[in-house]
Amino acid sequence: MAKKVSHKKITSKSTVKLSAEDKIDLAIHKKVQKYLHLHLDNYGSKHGRRIEGALFILNFLAIVLFVIETHNISDATRTLLHNIELFVVGIFVLEYAARMWVAENRTKHFFNIYSIIDLLVILPVALNFLNLSFLRIFRILRLFRILRILRFQRIFKSKDTMFGNLSDTKLVVIRIVLTIFTIVFASSGFLWSIENKINPGEFGSIWNAMYFAIVTMSTVGYGDITPISAWGRLVTILMIIAGIALIPWQLGKLLKIMIAAAGKTQTNCKKCGLIEHDLDAKYCKQCGKPMKIKTQSNTED
Asked: Could you tell me which residues are beta bridge partners of residue 277?
């Protein structure tokens, strides 16, 4: 009879050994991820300010390219501008991928308002590689390029900005100016895109559309330029509603901050660096260090 051969069961788990090249790749991967996590959206670091500064310039360049495209330019110039735009948007695609890569909660990051704006901005140009210009939906998506102006809101979402640490008053004033400019530019871009083909005499360039937007928002209303399409009138209505809703609301915040600032003094805490303190404060409200507040009466003596 044949003897049964007993096979030994392998109980130990096999470990995967990484080669030296794989270890180097893994170390670089972790180092790059850590670098991006530390410096993206971080204006406190030198590298963070450089990254955000470069993105600020590229975004401003993309807006300038859009404005130039609204004029009568040669086909060669238009092709050159289109290629530059593809390069700029390519960098924005890398930025979007990097932010998604280092995000702690990617689902939450995806539905973040700034992430949605980034996606709407890069999607129309990214789809251009698929040659979908014959589709009507693609032409509508091209209008979303105008929303690049909203990317500037990211810089002033907190007091720590690319231009330094701003006070509450300065931050609100900048937000008000930026809100007005955003409403005017976005509305002008949409109006030009809609009215240019059916009403080229009055909306021949984006500058005419800006003139109409400023005159309309300031309630002057000369009436020398008016949209004739239903979509153009809808954009005008939304522009007016946005101006009525957002600008007074921010002006109210500015008034509250100015009233609150009247009861404070600028005294630097040597321990934690807090600057604003109440006039009658004896201790720093952030770290508790005893302080000598310089009041107006003390300075006069």
From this structure: 265
CATH class of 31-153: mainly alpha
CA distance 142 to 116: 16
pLDDT digits (tens, 9 = 90+) for 186-208: 899 889 888 888 888 888 888 88
Query: Which residues, 6+ apart, have CB-to-CB distance to 77 below 8 Å?
Result: none
Residue 238's alpha-carbon distances to 207, 217, 219, 246, in angstroms, are 19, 11, 15, 12
Concatenated DSSP letters for 196-219? TTT-TTTSSSHHHHHHHHHHHHTT
DSSP code of residue 30: H
Residue-level pLDDT at 263? 64
SS3 of residue 276 by DSSP: strand
Could you tell me if residue 221 is left (phi over 0), alpha (psi between -120 and 50 degrees) or otherwise beta? left
d(CA 94, CA 1): 70
Distance separating alpha carbons of residues 146 and 73, to the nearest angstrom: 19
pLDDT, tens digit, 9 for 90 and up, residues 110-160: 888 888 888 888 877 666 666 555 555 555 666 777 878 888 887 787 777
Q: Where in the chain is the domain with CATH 1.20.120?
A: 31-153
Q: Shortest CA distance to 64 belongs to which of 49, 85, 45?
A: 85
Contact predicate 125/92, CB 8 Å: no
Fold of the 167-262 domain: Helix Hairpins (1.10.287)
In the structure encoding, which two tokens stand for residue 49, read together? 């300010």
